């Protein structure tokens, strides 16, 4: 049993590159996933791969350049209150500013 067993990990950019590699790596450690990406078809494929190996995972289509989609991602099932680890290889700034979230949800992680 690892320290990540049953902990929730939120990964943006989860369907390719570093995000995908992170999901695959941590899935063997018993973590639960909320995978976010702009590409639903790739998200479905990733979740199928993770769950076929026994991981608990959920995909939420999210374009992190859209402030409202980021807010929705964080609000779903009160993710900000349950996430133990945030991996955001897809992180970026919008117009030179970090994406602000009402109530500082991510700051509370």
Summarize the structure.
With 109 residues, the chain is α/β, with parallel strands linked by helices. The protein has helices at 17-27, 40-52, 67-75, 79-82; strands at 8-12, 32-37, 56-61, 83-87.
Q: Helices and strands in order, then pairings?
A:
Elements: E1 8-12, H1 17-27, E2 32-37, H2 40-52, E3 56-61, H3 67-75, H4 79-82, E4 83-87
Parallel strand pairs: 1-2, 1-4, 2-3
Walk me through this protein's architecture.
- The protein is of the alpha/beta class.
- The chain has one domain (8-97): Rossmann fold.
- It has helices at 17-27, 40-52, 67-75, 79-82, and strands spanning 8-12, 32-37, 56-61, 83-87.
- A four-stranded parallel sheet has the order 3-2-1-4.
- Helix 1 links the parallel strand 1 and strand 2.
- The longest helix is centred in the middle third of the chain and has 13 residues, at 40-52.
- The protein is globular and about 35 Å long.
- Mean pLDDT is 76; it is low at 93-97, 99-103 and 105-109.
Helix/strand/pairing class, anyone? alpha/beta
Instruction: Give the helix level as a range of percent.
Output: 25-40%
Number of helices in the DSSP assignment? 4
Q: Which percent range describes the beta-strand content?
A: 15-25%
Tally of structural domains: 1
Specify the CATH class. Alpha Beta
H-E string: EHEHEHHE
CATH topology: Rossmann fold
Tally of DSSP β-strands: 4
CATH homologous superfamily caption: NAD(P)-binding Rossmann-like Domain
Low-confidence spans: pLDDT under 50, at least 5 residues? 93-97, 99-103, 105-109
Going across the major beta sheet, what is the strand order? 3-2-1-4
* Sheet having the most strands: 4 strands, parallel
Radius of gyration, whole Å: 13 Å
Task: Give the averaged pLDDT, no decimals.
Answer: 76
Give the termini distance in whole angstroms: 23 Å
Assigned CATH architecture = 3-Layer(aba) Sandwich
Overall shape: it is globular
């Amino acid at each position: 049993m690892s320290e990540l067993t049953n902990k929730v990990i939120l990964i943006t950019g989860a369907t390719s590159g570093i995000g995908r590699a992170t999901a695959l790596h941590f899935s063997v450690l018993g973590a639960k996933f909320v995978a976010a990406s702009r590409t639903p078809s790739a998200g479905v494929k990733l979740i199928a791969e993770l769950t076929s190996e026994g991981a608990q995972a959920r995909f939420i289509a999210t374009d992190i350049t859209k402030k409202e989609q980021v807010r929705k991602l964080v609000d779903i099932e009160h993710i900000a209150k349950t996430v133990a680890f945030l991996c955001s290889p897809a992180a970026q700034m919008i117009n030179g500013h970090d994406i602000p979230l009402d109530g500082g949800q991510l700051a509370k992680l």
